[in-house]
Amino acid sequence: MLLSLVLHMYSMRCVLPAAVLLGSAPTYVLAWGAWRLLSAFLPSRFYQAVDDRLYCIYQSMVLFFFENYTGILLYGDLPKNKENIIYLANHQSTVDWIIADILAIRQNALGHVRYVLKDGLKWLPLYGCYFSQMYLVIFPEGTRYNPELTKVISASQTFAAQEGLPVLKHVLTPRVKATHVAFDTMKSYLDAIYDVTVAFEGTMDDKGQRKEAPSMAEFLCKECPKIHIHIDRIDKKDVPEEQVYMRRWLHERFEIKDKLLIEFYDSLDPERRNKFPGKSVNSKLSLKKTLPSLLILSSLTAGMLMTEAGRKLYVKTWIYGTLIGCLWVSIKA
Predict the structure, then answer these.
(1) Could you give the dihedral angle defined by the CA atoms of residues 24, 112, 329 and 152, in that order, rounded to the nearest 10 degrees?
(2) Suppose 304 and one of 32, 310, 315, 319 were both cysteines; which one would form an S-S bond, judging by CB atoms 3.0 to 4.6 Å apart?
(3) Is the per-residue pLDDT at 128 higher than 80?
(4) Residue 133 has pLDDT above 50, yes or no
């Protein structure tokens, strides 16, 4: 009986996150929309303060599942104090934006995270127009590294060779435009750039070849691999401002990433594989950081769905929220 219960609970491990994350979306959007209207005649700082708090509540709920489904190992310059930063990372999975949140919550900066998104992602139902809105996350590769997409990797390596740049193995050749625009615009407010390199355990096949990194759905539904996160903190004064020099600097940063990933995946010494060089910290987040947000949003959503009027409002929010979001994105385009 107990074994059956355990197996049933394990089978629900993917259903519960999906139900909660998607199910609470209208609740969050309604709360944000209501505050947007109520704050229309207030100074913008009041709107921004509550908006950041609402955003933090939702992201904390998301992190409840990721923090408790896997192990997180941190290396390098561990984040301590809250800072205004640009976060540069290698891109290999739909989980990557969650990893930015994993670092941000440890600096009490979760409500301030914003992402440079692929253009197509702004059309996501309910979320797209909001997520594309001082913790700026940039993936300079422009698309995810997938070892199975050999044509993409080959094109990236060919471009690097033609430009006289070192060819990279485990990352794609970075593009400088978004990084340069972000840095040039924000340099007066920035403290640093975080150069973040991420690797997942369990992404090598029996032949020792790197496999595709887990998607968000796979991450939650299957046995979750440990996440290894290496952080280099770079003071803004050490970043070149001219685009031509920043391009070279950015490629050099990705050369460092590539060496870290070669060590992680390809080291000849089995004892050095599946970890980055240097000391690691097994970072476990307190439930106090995430559980309250899960309970708040789940309770509000359940309360709404218990009444007929609430259910109608819930459905209308999905439909009209998506349509209004797409219209807003179209107007801004």
Answers:
(1) -100
(2) 310
(3) no
(4) no
Q: What is the dihedral of CA 180, 183, 187, 191, to 10 degrees?
A: -140
Convert the pLDDT of each residue in 47-79 to its tens digit: 888 988 988 998 899 899 888 888 899 999 988
Can you name the residues that pair with 136 across neighbouring β-strands? 86, 114
Q: Is the pLDDT of residue 127 over 80?
A: no
DSSP bridge pairs for 233: 194
Name residue, tokens 């007066």: 188
| 135-138 vs 280-282, strand pairing mode | unpaired
Spell out the residues 6+ positions from residue 270 whose beta carbon is closer than 8 angstroms to its own: none
Q: What is the 3-state secondary structure (H, E, C) of the chain?
A: CHHHHHHHHHHCCCHHHHHHHHHCHHHHHHHHHHHHHHCCCCCHHHHHHHHHHHHHHHHHHHHHHHHHHCCEEEEECCCCCCCCEEEEECCCCCCHHHHHHHHHHCCCCHHHEEECCCHHHHHCCCCHHHHCCCEEEECCCCCCCCCCCHHHHHHHHHHHHHCCCCCCCCCCCCCCHHHHHHHHHHCCCCCEEEEEEEEECCCECCCCCECCCCCHHHHHHCCCCCEEEEEEEEEHHHCCCCHHHHHHHHHHHHHHHHHHHHHHHHCCCHHHCCCCCCCEEECCCCHHHCHHHHHHHHHHHHHHHCCHHHHHHHHHHHHHHHHHHHHHHHHHC
pTM, 2 dp: 0.86
Nearest CA among 318, 267, 255, 333 for reference residue 124: 318
Nearest alpha-carbon partner for 95 in 239, 220, 273, 247: 220
- Tell me the per-residue pLDDT of 299-313, one tens digit each, with 9 for 90 and over: 999 999 999 999 999
Nearest alpha carbon to residue 197 among 134, 119, 141, 239: 141
> Of 132-146, 185-199, 215-229, 315-329, which one has max mean pLDDT?
185-199
